[in-house]
UniProtKB/TrEMBL annotation:
<dbReference type="GO" id="GO:0016987">
    <property type="term" value="F:sigma factor activity"/>
</dbReference>
<dbReference type="InterPro" id="IPR007634">
    <property type="entry name" value="RNA_pol_sigma_54_DNA-bd"/>
</dbReference>
<dbReference type="InterPro" id="IPR000394">
    <property type="entry name" value="RNA_pol_sigma_54"/>
</dbReference>
<dbReference type="GO" id="GO:0001216">
    <property type="term" value="F:DNA-binding transcription activator activity"/>
</dbReference>
<dbReference type="Pfam" id="PF04552">
    <property type="entry name" value="Sigma54_DBD"/>
</dbReference>
<feature type="domain" description="RNA polymerase sigma factor 54 DNA-binding">
    <location>
        <begin position="11"/>
        <end position="170"/>
    </location>
</feature>
<protein>
    <recommendedName>
        <fullName>RNA polymerase sigma factor 54 DNA-binding domain-containing protein</fullName>
    </recommendedName>
</protein>
<dbReference type="GO" id="GO:0006357">
    <property type="term" value="P:regulation of transcription by RNA polymerase II"/>
</dbReference>
<dbReference type="InterPro" id="IPR010982">
    <property type="entry name" value="Lambda_DNA-bd_dom_sf"/>
</dbReference>
<dbReference type="GO" id="GO:0003677">
    <property type="term" value="F:DNA binding"/>
</dbReference>
Length: 172
């Protein structure tokens, strides 16, 4: 078809070739973006991949976007519905993003995920005959240098599906 002298056919072929090149370029660019975002996630969350308790650091879409020089919505689209397979499971890329709580004692951020894990650990190890109140959980977390409000403990406890202390009490 390229050998033809028909101007309409030549214009059509040129248009379709340009469309193909544009599509090919965007597919390559998308793959590159996903790879760059994934690499940055792995670099920032090294402890998750190396330690048995899988701790997550506080990390936001905005931080990754700024590091990579792309828009936050681009990072959001890149991780949405994408998964990372490891030797110990498959994880949605979005699950690696966690907001943090600033620790007043150390000046470091603690991810909400690690605070929730600590909260669950405290509840799992509590005396079931005398379960810990939300205020007591706040006090115990403060001893571990995690300074959060009682309302935040309540919100995290509910998000973990842990009932209030009155509902956890056992009369054995």
């Amino acid at each position: 078809m390229e050998a033809t002298d028909d101007k309409e056919v030549q214009a059509y072929i040129k248009e379709k070739k340009n469309e193909f090149e544009w599509l090919e370029k965007t597919i390559v660019q998308r793959g590159d973006t996903i790879l760059r975002v994934g690499t940055e996630i792995v670099q920032r969350q090294q402890e998750f991949f190396l330690k048995d308790d899988r701790p997550l650091k506080a990390m936001t879409l905005r931080e990754i976007a700024e590091t990579l020089g792309i828009h936050e919505s681009t990072v959001s689209r890149a991780v949405n519905g994408k998964y990372l397979e490891t030797e110990f499971g498959v994880f949605e890329l979005r699950s690696f993003f966690s907001y943090g709580l600033l620790n007043d004692h150390t000046g470091e951020e603690t991810s909400t995920d690690s605070v929730k894990k600590q909260l669950k650990l405290l509840v799992d190890n509590e005396n079931k005959a005398k379960p810990l109140s939300d205020q007591k959980l706040v006090d115990l977390l403060k001893e571990q240098k995690i300074d959060i409000s009682r309302r935040t403990v309540t919100k995290y406890r509910e998000s973990l599906g842990i009932p209030a202390s009155s509902k956890r009490k056992r009369y054995d």
